[in-house]
Automatic annotation (TrEMBL):
Alphabetically ordered keywords of this record: Membrane, Transmembrane, Transmembrane helix
Protein name, entry field: FAD/NAD(P)-binding domain-containing protein
A Pfam entry, by short name: NAD_binding_8
PANTHER family given in the database record: AMINE OXIDASE DOMAIN-CONTAINING PROTEIN (PTHR42923:SF42), PROTOPORPHYRINOGEN OXIDASE (PTHR42923)
Family annotation (Gene3D superfamilies): FAD/NAD(P)-binding domain, Protoporphyrinogen oxidase, mitochondrial, domain 2
Top-rank lineage group of the source organism: Eukaryota
Entry's transmembrane regions: 166-186
Molecular function via GO: oxidoreductase activity
Protein's organism: Acaromyces ingoldii
Composition skew (Low complexity), residue ranges: 403-413
Region annotated Disordered, chain positions: 402-421
C-alpha cells in the first residue's frame, strides 16, 4: 500500500521556511537537528528503530546507593577526552550537561594468560603502575623455610627474577612511549597530521611503527590493545589506520582528563531534541530512497513504516544523511537512479538536463567515497559474570583489556616453522600472526564459550576485549560489567547477561578519501581553548600549547557537499567526518554541514 504525505505545511510555505530531512538519529543527526531548529528551520528526523539512536541501546539497572534509584548505563560506553573532543565539550557546555571525571585505570592481559601482565593506575600516569599479582613477591610457607630452606631460597630468588624482568619490561615500555609521544607532538605541532599532502596522512600506522623501530612489545601489548578498545575495531584496522590520526590522538590527549556525562547520554538526547516538534520525529520509519520532485530544488523521501506501508513525503529543500557510510551509499544509489530516470524525459538542450548530469557526476563521486569507508561489527554485553575479569581481585581495574595471544618475538608461519628474516610487514608484526594450535583454531571456528558451548553471541578473535567495571548492583552485591567484543571462549554465561547489542563501527578513513566531502586548509584563526573545565595543570598546558608557533589547520565542508544550484541539497556527515570515528567527528561534521546549509540559504 502506498500513501502520499505532502506535509509541506501551509504556514511553512507562507513564511518561506526551509524544510530539512535528517536520516539517522545518532549524535550527528541530533546535533544537526538541534542547530537547524534554533534557526527556525522545519526539521524532520527519520529513524528506522523504535527509539532515537543515540540512547537506543542503553539500559537502566538498580544501583547500589542509599537513594535506591536506578543507574543509567550508556551502551556503548560514552567516555570522552577533553583534549580530543573540544567540540563535544563545547556542545555539552552550551546544553548545561553535567559531566564527571572518569580517569580510568587499566589492566592488560592475554587471552591465554588471564592474569594481567601490566597494570596502569590512571591519573595520566601520576599514580604509576602496580605489580600484577602473578609476580608479586611473597614469602614461602614457614614450614617450607624450616624443612627445606634451599627450596625457599630458590623460590624467593625466582620471584625476584620475575620482578626484575617485569621492571625491565616497564623501562622498555616507558622509553617506547616517550619515543611515540615525542614523534606525535613533533608531527602534530608542525601541522603534519592535518596536512592531507603529508605522507603520514596516507601511511598505515603498522608500517610507520616498523620504520620508526618502535618496540613490538609496546606496539602489540599496549598501543594496539588501547586503540582497538578506543576505536572498537580489529587490530588489523588499527595497523591500517592512517598514522596521522593515531599521532593526533596521542598528542591531543596527553595529560588530559577523561569524562562521562553524569546522568548518561539520555540527558544529551533529551536536550538536543527539546525544541523539536514530536510530530516531525519519525521513528519506526525506514527511508528507502530519494527522488526529485516536479518542483525544482525539492526532493521526495520514499518511506517504509513498521507495518510495511510505503509512503512518500515531499517538499524537502535539503536531506542530511548521518547514517553509517554504507547505509548512506544505498540512498545515494537510489537518488542517482531517480535522477537518471528524470534526465531521460527532459528535452535535449534544456538547462535542467545539464544540471542533472552534473548532479549525477557529483553523487557518483560521493558514492565511491562512501563505499570505500570500511565498517566492522561490534558487540557490547552488559552482564554480571566476574569470570571475565582477572583471576585475582587485586588485579581488577576500571577497564580490563584482554587481547588475543600472539608470539612475543617472531611469528610462526602457517606450516608452524619460524618466519624468515626478510618477513613482510604483515609477518613482521606479531599481532597479525596469531599462534595456531588445535584448541585455538577450534575456538576461532566455533566461537566456543568457556564451558564448551557454542557462544550465542559469537566473538571476534582479533579484537581486544574490554571489560568495564561499571558499578555495584543492589541485588546480592553483584558487579555490573560491560564487555565489548568478547573473545572466543570468554563469553558471559547466558543467565548473567542483562543485554547484548550489536553495532556497526566505521573504520578511520584517510583524509584523501574524504577530500571533497571534508577538506583541510591552513587557518589563521585563534586556536580553541581546551582547558575550560580542566584542572589547573590542564589549563596551563592548554595556554602553553596555544602560544606555541604551531601550524594551524581547519576543516571545512567540501565542494561535493550540497549539490548543484537549482537542485535540492544532499549532505553527508557522521563519525567518519573527522579523525578517529568517535563522537567528536559527529559534532564537527554536523556543525560544518549546518553552517553550509544556512550560508547557502538566501
Amino acid at each position: 500500500m502506498e500513501a502520499t504525505m505532502s506535509d509541506d505545511g501551509a504556514e511553512g510555505r507562507q513564511r518561506g521556511r526551509l524544510k530539512v530531512a535528517i536520516v539517522g538519529t545518532g549524535m550527528a543527526g541530533l546535533v544537526a537537528a538541534h542547530r537547524l531548529s534554533r534557526e527556525d528551520v522545519e526539521v524532520h528526523l527519520f529513524e528506522r528503530g523504535t527509539r532515537l539512536g543515540l540512547d537506543a541501546n542503553s539500559i537502566s539497572v538498580p544501583a547500589d546507593g542509599e537513594d535506591g534509584g536506578d543507574l543509567r548505563v550508556d551502551v556503548p560506553m560514552r567516555s570522552f577526552n577533553a583534549g580530543y573532543y573540544p567540540s563535544l565539550l563545547a556542545l555539552y557546555n552550551s546544553l548545561n550537561i553535567a559531566i564527571r571525571p572518569s580517569n580510568y585505570t587499566f589492566s592488560f592481559s592475554s587471552a591465554l594468560a588471564p592474569s594481567p601482565w601490566l597494570i596502569y593506575n590512571g591519573r595520566n600516569g601520576l599514580r604509576g603502575l602496580s605489580l600484577p599479582s602473578s609476580i608479586r613477591p611473597s614469602l614461602p610457607p614457614l614450614r617450607t623455610i624450616v624443612r627445606a630452606p634451599h627450596i625457599a631460597v630458590q623460590s624467593i630468588a625466582s620471584q625476584f627474577q620475575d620482578v626484575r624482568t617485569y621492571l625491565g619490561l616497564v623501562v622498555t615500555l616507558a622509553l617506547s612511549y616517550l619515543q611515540l609521544l615525542v614523534l606525535a607532538f613533533w608531527h602534530h605541532l608542525l601541522g603534519h597530521c592535518s596536512d592531507p599532502s603529508h605522507p603520514i596522512t596516507k601511511q598505515p600506522f603498522g608500517e610507520w611503527c616498523l620504520q620508526r623501530r618502535l618496540s613490538l612489545d609496546f606496539v602489540n601489548g599496549v598501543v594496539l590493545s588501547l586503540f582497538s578498545a578506543v576505536m572498537t575495531c580489529q587490530h588489523d584496522a588499527v595497523l591500517a589506520c592512517p598514522t596521522s590520526e593515531i599521532l593526533s590522538y596521542v598528542a591531543m590527549t596527553f595529560l588530559r582528563s577523561h569524562y562521562q556525562v553524569a546522568e548518561g547520554v539520555q540527558q544529551v538526547e533529551a536536550a538536543l531534541t527539546k525544541g523539536l516538534d514530536s510530530d516531525r520525529i519519525h521513528t519506526s520509519t525506514t527511508v528507502k530512497g530519494l527522488h526529485p520532485t516536479n518542483a525544482r530544488a525539492k526532493v521526495c523521501l520514499v518511506l517504509e513504516t513498521a507495518d510495511q506501508e510505503t509512503q512518500l513525503m515531499h517538499g524537502f529543500d535539503h536531506v542530511i544523511l548521518t547514517t553509517p557510510a554504507h547505509l548512506s551509499a544505498s540512498l545515494v544509489e537510489s537518488y542517482i537512479d531517480a535522477l537518471r530516470a528524470r534526465r531521460r524525459v527532459v528535452p535535449a538542450g534544456d538547462d535542467e538536463k545539464k544540471t542533472l548530469v552534473q548532479e549525477e557526476a557529483r553523487l557518483e563521486t560521493v558514492l565511491g567515497k562512501l563505499l570505500s569507508i570500511r565498517v566492522e561489527d561490534s558487540l557490547v554485553i552488559n552482564h554480571t559474570d566476574r569470570s571475565l575479569l582477572p583471576l585475582n581481585r587485586r588485579d581488577w581495574r576500571d577497564l580490563n583489556l584482554a587481547s588475543p595471544s600472539y608470539s612475543s618475538s617472531s611469528p610462526p608461519s602457517e606450516d608452524g616453522t619460524d618466519s624468515c628474516e626478510d618477513a613482510t610487514l604483515v609477518d613482521s608484526l606479531p599481532i597479525l600472526s596469531p599462534m595456531h594450535n588445535k584448541e585455538q583454531q577450534q575456538q576461532d571456528d566455533g566461537m566456543l564459550a568457556k564451558d564448551g558451548r557454542t557462544s550465542p553471541y559469537g566473538g571476534i578473535a582479533r579484537h581486544t576485549m574490554a571489560t568495564h567495571v561499571v558499578s555495584r548492583l543492589r541485588s546480592k552485591g553483584q558487579l555490573l560489567l560491560q564487555t565489548t567484543n568478547p573473545l572466543p571462549g570468554s563469553t558471559p554465561r547466558p543467565q548473567e547477561v542483562l543485554s547484548a547489542s550489536r553495532f556497526q563501527r566505521v573504520m578511520t578513513p584517510p583524509k584523501a578519501l574524504l577530500s571533497g566531502l571534508f577538506d583541510w586548509r591552513p587557518s589563521r584563526r585563534r586556536r580553541r581553548s581546551w582547558g575550560d573545565r580542566g584542572a589547573l595543570g590542564e589549563r596551563l598546558l592548554s595556554i602553553a600549547y596555544a602560544c606555541m608557533p604551531v601550524s594551524k589547520w581547519e576543516m571545512v565542508a567540501g565542494e561535493l557537499q550540497g549539490g548543484q544550484e537549482g537542485m535540492p541539497g544532499v549532505w553527508f556527515c557522521g563519525s567518519y567526518s573527522y579523525g578517529i570515528p568517535l563522537l567528536e567527528g559527529c559534532v564537527v561534521g554536523s556543525d560544518l554541514v549546518v553552517e553550509s546549509i544556512l550560508r547557502r540559504t538566501p
